[in-house]
Amino acid sequence: MGRLAVVSGGGTGIGRAVAAALAAEGSEVVVVGRRPEPLAAVAAGLPGVRAVTADLTDPAQVARAAKEIGGPVDVLVNNAGGNFAPAPPEPGDLETLRAQWLANVTGNVLPVVLLTEALLPVLSRPGGRIVTITSVAAFRGPATYGGSKAALHPWSAELAARLAPEGVTVNVVAPGYIPETEFYGERMNAEFHAGRSAQSPSGRGGTPAEVAATVAHLASPLAGFLTGQIIQINGGAIPGRG
Ligand SMILES: NC(=O)c1ccc[n+]([C@@H]2O[C@H](COP(=O)([O-])OP(=O)(O)OC[C@H]3O[C@@H](n4cnc5c(N)ncnc54)[C@H](OP(=O)(O)O)[C@@H]3O)[C@@H](O)[C@H]2O)c1
After folding, report:
1. Does the pLDDT value for residue 96 go beyond 80?
2. Is 177 an annotated catalytic residue?
3. What is the value of pTM for the model shown?
4. What residue segments make up the domains of the chain, in order of their start?
5. Sheet-wide strand order for 75-78
6. Which of 14, 75, 137, 157 has the fewest CB atoms in 10 Å of its CB?
7. So what CATH class is 4-233?
């Protein structure tokens, strides 16, 4: 068996494609998520993949998951997240506004920082790779989701500087519209899809496999000099910055 990779949110969407890409390269892959069913389906369908069930916003569950994962961990892909407050509150509704900020910071920041902290002691040095999935939303909103993803950019930059002397790279992948995921839930329909596709000059959404290919490169041994970066994958929706 090759390297050990951990993919949070690996049961669906982008995470599932990342798990498939890393498994295809011969890595042992641990997929982590809250629902056992999608994780079990991925583990059953891909060689060398096993499932660990945990809500990564909960420190006790993260600590237990880290024990089940074991180590040394060569690759950590922080992919779990979502938009936990997709519709803005009514103007002036401070209680809902507060709840929405807390929901998105909890749902997007905590799974990344807690799982990373829990696995840092067993991360391979040198050679460890940390890749965190944020979003085009981190550059342009919507507010609470984009704000929670944007918080991960300085976190990742600081960690990259801290771990570079130990031969560990830390990068961010910020995807644009990726329709073949569970991300959009009931909001997805033909009109929504057409509108989102038109936001990119490419005129389409990306595929989970297209995001996974970049993650796999960042996770590869040859990407050792590529650290502290934010790679955008959005069909040109936002020209390079960040
Ligand atoms: N799809 C897009 O257009 C798009 C664009 C930019 C960025 N992103 C980001 O890409 C990442 C992957 O999302 P996706 O598009 O592939 O959507 P998805 O299919 O909904 O995948 C999200 C995954 O994260 C897991 N997850 C969420 N909260 C979790 C928690 N607290 N603990 C453990 N697992 C958790 C979910 O599994 P459980 O529900 O079973 O826990 C699910 O497998 C997310 O961070 C998302 O914000 C997506």
Report:
1. yes
2. no
3. 0.98
4. 4-233
5. 49-53, 28-33, 4-8, 75-78, 129-133, 169-175, 230-233
6. 157
7. alpha beta
